[in-house]
Amino acid sequence: MRFRHPDGSTVHLAYCTNVHPAETLDGVLAQLRDHCEPVRKRLGRDRIGIGLWLAKDAAHALVTDPAALRGLRTELDRRGLEVVTLNGFPYEGFGAEEVKYRVYKPDWADPERLSHTTALARVLAQLLPDDVTEGTISTLPLGWRTTFDAARAEEARAALVTLAQRLDALAELTGKSIRIGLEPEPGCTVETTGDAIAPLAAVGHDRIGICVDTCHLATSFEDPGTALDALAAADIPVVKSQLSAALHAEHPHLPEVRAALAAFDEPRFLHQTRTLPREPEGPTTGGTLVATALRGTDDLGEALTRQALPDSAPWRAHFHVPLHAPPAAPLTSTLPVLKDTLTRLVGGPHPRTRHLEVETYTWHALPPELRPRARPQLADGIAAELTLARDLLTDLGLKELP
What we know:
The chain is an alpha/beta fold and 402 residues long. It is 39% helix and 20% strand. The chain is built from twelve helices and 17 strands. It has helices spanning 25-43, 56-64, 66-78, 111-127, 150-174, 193-203, 214-219, 224-233, 255-262, 300-304, 335-346, 375-395; strands at residues 2-4, 10-16, 48-53, 81-87, 134-139, 177-182, 208-213, 238-243, 245-249, 273-275, 278-280, 289-291, 295-297, 315-321, 331-333, 355-358, 399-400. The strands form three sheets. The protein has an eight-stranded parallel β-barrel with strand order 2-3-4-5-6-7-8-16, surrounded by seven helices. Strands 13-10-14-9-15 form a five-stranded antiparallel beta sheet. Strands 11-12 form a two-stranded antiparallel sheet. Strand 2, helix 1 (25-43) and strand 3 (48-53) form a beta-alpha-beta unit. Helix 2 (56-64) crosses helix 3. The longest helix is centred in the middle third of the chain and has 25 residues, at 150-174. The chain is globular, with a radius of gyration of 20 Å.
């Protein structure tokens, strides 16, 4: 879906296909037929955007077989779909019964991450619509924190410098500019937008920037204005933003709240959980409450273990909940953080990013009563999310294009 910003530029909205896991090119083609085209039809649009997730085998098939790449481009056109952005974070196995920590491998100190991302960039340059010259790819925020030391950080920096050089060469060859965005995520060495500034400044190239995922931003209790102002001050580009909402529990000490949270503790994905405890300011308990250091656990089940996480302040969990359907009370979602971030990204005189991607990949990990029963219900849900995102954009003064 395309929108005209008041400054005349085009802003793209897509939804991410990592909600339809597929490891092979045949699987990707089936996604387009079975899921993406039905979503487009529900929206009543001649064309919608999708943010493709290409696992390693699918990417390899496309980058080594020009006929296969042309065939994918033809199939996209035939089904009224366009691609300006890819999700390059998961490498393989995203549809496995247990993903958890595996999603962070290979990290940016592993040469395979550079090789895979280079392949994705080459593929995207050929998939971009004829009238679009810029594509974006979101990627792993360097690596998981516990395995990432100073030596691996230097290897990652060198890999990103090499990637930037390859992207420059690709632009010279194709006339298409592909940019990469590190996607901060709780638990990673780049957990917050602030954590991204130093490594990105060390790379020092405008083709390597940040992808702001609004679920991750909210889970880490980042203030959107503060985060985006810091990125701007450091000249770090926001190459894309993933529109997503986290799980919010205002009163995690209550038994009914903990029971509701436990329904979202599932075995497939990691649901990092964070809280920002508040303590009285000054020596007396009558002082003003002030936030202390962010506390967290790697997964929701760990947080629910008694005393594993302070429960005197709200909790947020890295669980991408559907944008249009917040969980029932006593839980809520962080949709207000998404709205605030989106306003700051595209509500001003000029957009700070032109690529937006709805990314709710956890539909089938929701509590059983909330999961879509079959493909039609999933398509209905994705279409409803895109409708909500469209309405937010038009409320900000953007005009939907045919």
